[in-house]
Amino acid sequence: MKKTIISGVITIAVVLLSSQFVQAQGTMTYLSNVDQASAGSLAVGSDSWLATLFTTGTNVSGYTLDSIELGMADASGSPNDFMVTLYKPHTGGFDIRGSDLGTLDGSLNPTTAGIYTYTPDSSLTLSANTQYLIVLTAGTTVANGAYDWSIANGSFDTSGNWNPGTRYLSSDGGSHWTVTSVDYYVQFAINATAVPEPGVLALSGLGGLLLLWHRRKSKAVL
To answer: Which residues of the chain have pLDDT under 70?
Structure first.
């Protein structure tokens, strides 16, 4: 009887701990400044690509990207074919050639000021302590109409050791990029889920096995 009680207590403790670890891996907003007032905007077009860097946190197993939110200002003219793409830059952080991770799904025509959400069309894992680029472009030249990426003067709210870039990049067509250091930030937010580390998954599995063993042993005693 005493052994049964002890094993039951141990089982419950392990299951509760593993449950807490797993629950902690839900979606979180790791970077955001979209709740700040707009201080202006930058034009996005086929001849005015824009990009910004961010760096992921320290979770060893990486992060599943859930969504990217963009703060947009009112568009000008009649733009079309807005596109949001995620890149993993090469050495130095500013060479994006050959590192396209995919176009994100969301509004193709964000002409009205507001926050727009873009999601991967399939599961996308971001590595820990790694730089990525959010790249915006469109199907029309700025002279014929442009989407406008909102900017803010304040810094980001951050979590989990994630960091935004302190500069943005611009290009007239995606081949050659200019790096600009500024006193403001383009507006975006990153929502992601930390991938459980192997030890956490093992702990969760152990808890389940102990619980199963305890139930079977209790039935045997009865």
So the answer is: 1-25, 91-98, 199-222
